[in-house]
C-alpha cells in the first residue's frame, strides 16, 4: 500500500479520465480493477481518484495479462507472485550482501 510522499512515482497525480487515456483503457475498466482490488489509486479528501505512475504501470501490466488471456483471478495471482518474487529477490540480495561483508575467520 502507498504512503503519501513515499516516492515520486507513487504520488497520485492523474484523474481517472487522464489515466484511462494514458493506459488505453476505459474508465469503467479502471473502476472494475479497483473494485477487484487490482489497483488502489489515492483518493482526494473529496473522494476523487488520483492515479500515480506506479498505478499506470500496474494497469499496463494488467492489460498485458488480460490480453494474454488471463481472467481477473489469474491476473491477481500473477501480480501477487510477481510481487513475491521481487521481495524474495531483494531478500536474497541482502542476505548475500551480508554474507560477503563478513570478515573471514
From TrEMBL:
<dbReference type="InterPro" id="IPR000551">
    <property type="entry name" value="MerR-type_HTH_dom"/>
</dbReference>
<protein>
    <submittedName>
        <fullName>MerR family transcriptional regulator</fullName>
    </submittedName>
</protein>
<dbReference type="GO" id="GO:0003677">
    <property type="term" value="F:DNA binding"/>
</dbReference>
<keyword id="KW-0238">DNA-binding</keyword>
<feature type="domain" description="HTH merR-type">
    <location>
        <begin position="13"/>
        <end position="81"/>
    </location>
</feature>
<dbReference type="InterPro" id="IPR009061">
    <property type="entry name" value="DNA-bd_dom_put_sf"/>
</dbReference>
<dbReference type="GO" id="GO:0003700">
    <property type="term" value="F:DNA-binding transcription factor activity"/>
</dbReference>
<dbReference type="InterPro" id="IPR047057">
    <property type="entry name" value="MerR_fam"/>
</dbReference>
<dbReference type="Pfam" id="PF13411">
    <property type="entry name" value="MerR_1"/>
</dbReference>
Amino acid at each position: 500500500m502507498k504512503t503519501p510522499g513515499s516516492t515520486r512515482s507513487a504520488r497520485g497525480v492523474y484523474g481517472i479520465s487522464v489515466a484511462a487515456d494514458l493506459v488505453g483503457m476505459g474508465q469503467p475498466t479502471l473502476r472494475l480493477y479497483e473494485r477487484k482490488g487490482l489497483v488502489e489509486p489515492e483518493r482526494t479528501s473529496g473522494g476523487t481518484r488520483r492515479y500515480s505512475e506506479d498505478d499506470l504501470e500496474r494497469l499496463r501490466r494488467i492489460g498485458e495479462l488480460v490480453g494474454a488471456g488471463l481472467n481477473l483471478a489469474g491476473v491477481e495471482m500473477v501480480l501477487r507472485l510477481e510481487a513475491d518474487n521481487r521481495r524474495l529477490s531483494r531478500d536474497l540480495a541482502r542476505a548475500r550482501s551480508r554474507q560477503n561483508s563478513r570478515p573471514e575467520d
